[in-house]
Amino acid sequence: MATIIAYLVAAAVAALVLSLPFGKTRVGSLLRRIAAFCAILVLVPAIVVSIVRVPPSDGGSGMSDVGCGVESLLALVVLSLVAWAFLFIRNWLARGRDRQRTPMMRRYRHRADNDLLEFLDRFTNGDRDA
Questions:
Q1: CA torsion 13→14→18→24, rounded to 10°?
Q2: Are 19 and 35 in contact (CB under 8 A)?
Q3: Phi, psi of 125 (to 5 degrees)
Q4: What does the alpha-carbon distance between residue 83 and residue 26 come to, in Å, rounded to a whole number?
Q5: How many CB atoms lie within 10 A of CB 8?
Q6: Environment class of residue 51 by beta-carbon count within 10 Å: exposed (0-12), middle (13-18) or buried (19+)?
Q7: pLDDT tens digits along 47-69
């Protein structure tokens, strides 16, 4: 297990370092995604072991190894569902705000297609809404 983790860390660092010269290109983006994926995979064994392993009992807990692991897993599922619901509600509430800005942005959208000098010429000639 330690060998796999060491290889994953090495792959993450190598992909990150190799992505630096490529900047914002597709290759650089792909290498950074690979580095992030390897970094997350490094954490997976620690998370799995912490879920499955039972802390030392104080003598009267009566909880089995499987029960503690299942409880921890259910707690993670519930937390992820709560986080998903929060994000869904936030996006649902933000939809109305985007619709209000659309007519205003439509008025100025055609300006992006025009040449800057043409726009400045019209602006100085008094046609400010063009």
A1: -40
A2: yes
A3: -85, 0
A4: 31
A5: 19
A6: middle
A7: 777 777 766 665 555 555 556 66
